[in-house]
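Intended use. Records like the one below are meant for learning the mapping from a protein sequence to its folded structure. Do not use them to infer anything beyond what is encoded.
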Amino acid sequence: MGKAGVYFPHDAWMARRSFIGANEDLVRRFLRAYSEGVYRLYTDPELSRRAIRRYARAVDPKVIDAVYQYALDYVEKIPYNTREGIQEVLNQAAARNPKAKTANPDVFYDDRFVKELEGAGFYRQLWGK
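Structure written out for the chain above:
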């Protein structure tokens, strides 16, 4: 989809605002762990392929390589969502939920935790940039 110019959040995580408000430390720890996992995805291809084999129950090396390449192509190193990606999800949802046609995509994402980690140097430390 990305190559076709369709912005779609391939690595979006969702939770209710009430859950986030009651569990901010858990959300931060989850996001750190997820980001460390993405780092391993990019830096340890063999581990990544073993995980694909195990959890996707894939045995064909071509399939495993294709899934791994897809992840490299679409999983962002720093997991910011984009307004365009959320809008695309709303566009897709509009067929089932008419309210999605007029929904404001800005109210569906909260990137403060990613910003916080980035501001603290977490991603710079992880990726060396």
